[in-house]
Amino acid sequence: MAESNTDTKSSNQMWGGRFASGPDAIMEEINASIGFDKKLFAQDIRGSIAHATMLAHQGIISTEDKDKIVHGLNTILSEIESGNFEFSRQLEDIHMNIEARLATLIGPAAGRLHTARSRNDQVALDFRLWVKEELEKTEKMLTGLIAAFLDRAEEHAESVMPGFTHLQTAQPVTFGHHCMAYVEMFGRDRSRVRHAIEHLDESPIGAAALAGTGYPIDRHMTAKALGFREPTRNSIDTVSDRDFAIEFLAIAAITGMHLSRLAEEIVIWSTPQFGFVRLSDAFSTGSSIMPQKKNPDAAELVRAKTGRINGSLIALLTIMKGLPLAYSKDMQEDKEQVFDAAESLELAIAAMTGMVRDMTVNTARMKAAAGSGFSTATDLADWLVREAGLPFRDAHHVTGRAVALAESKGCDLAELPLADLQAIHSAITDKVYDVLTVEASVASRKSFGGTAPSEVRKQIAFWRARN
Ligand code: ARG
Questions:
Q1: Pick from 6, 81, 104, 455: CA 20 to 30 A from residue 276's CA?
Q2: What pTM was computed for the model?
Q3: In a mutational test of the pocket of ligand 1, which residue from 94, 98, 120 has the highest number of ligand atoms less than 8 Å from its CB?
């Protein structure tokens, strides 16, 4: 798509009636949004067709004019789609670029399209339609990511790994359980997306500049034609509101934060020191100098994209926070933030879905790590409470002494001889070894939402039915 910036000093052909000369070059540069809002061309044309159709239906314009307008707009749509449309910076934005082209194509009838509307409700409409589509796309992508985790969780419902707090070995868990933690996170993100779609599902068109219009328009008709639940209820709010864009960015930021935590885990897990997973060649890169390296670049970039998305959220919140009602030109700066964040989010979800599906899980390494670091110490304490009747605090103390002994001997808890354990507390019997293995520890945690394979399978079934 070519962009032209002719140098003429004539006033703007769309709104230049009261202006004697054209804008200063700097004015044109700061004012123009065509460089980025051309992305809204399809939404703009859909909105205009719905508006023109409604105007004709209400007898505000003639059917002949409406037909010319619709035909012209469809021509413009194919011109833009095929790259045969010349965008002009002098015409500021996508709305005026399309309308000016319409005038060239169909003549004076084009001038009737802008009856009973303003660029203020027009841009609110176009942008809402765009954000709605993006949210719908995000919803689908999150469903794909959740499906990838459900498959991995099912495959690894029994695979033990160390569970961490403070990134220190805490208690054994299953890798399936860990995967299901992400299913919960992305499930919440998806439900936030669904709520956001519900919030924005109102049609702005017909609010006009800010006060509504004296023409007998039918906003319910345009709302329906454009796939909205209903029209917005306050024309001032309609042209002032960018909550839908901010909500998208907030959801993108939260989802990005989840993706980034996953990315961070993958970076850690794929180090030779951990060796829990191996990334596929498709999602890693080599080093130009160190032949042994396999770098998790995609995961690192997902982690970095989160910074960009957060920046977009803060930028738009800041742009909006001081604006009096109704429209101010500041609001033109909303689009780049949303476009950039949407691109980053889509890429990040796609990359993580691919990585999760493709990575090789090293169950032997995970199991070995799960058994080290005295991860079953809590199980020993629980056994002392259950079988020897000790108060938990005392059991904790006894277990601490056992851990210290194992540490000094350089062995695991399960490797301490019974005599050593009995020297610490006489009530300990050889039955204690049943709970000191990681498998026994994991299988015992059957509380709702716990890590026992039986419980993890229940949660997988729940999410399969929901996904
Ligand atoms: N390009 C403008 C934007 O993105 C369209 C609305 C302009 N409205 C106006 N009153 N100048 O916000």
A1: 455
A2: 0.91
A3: 120
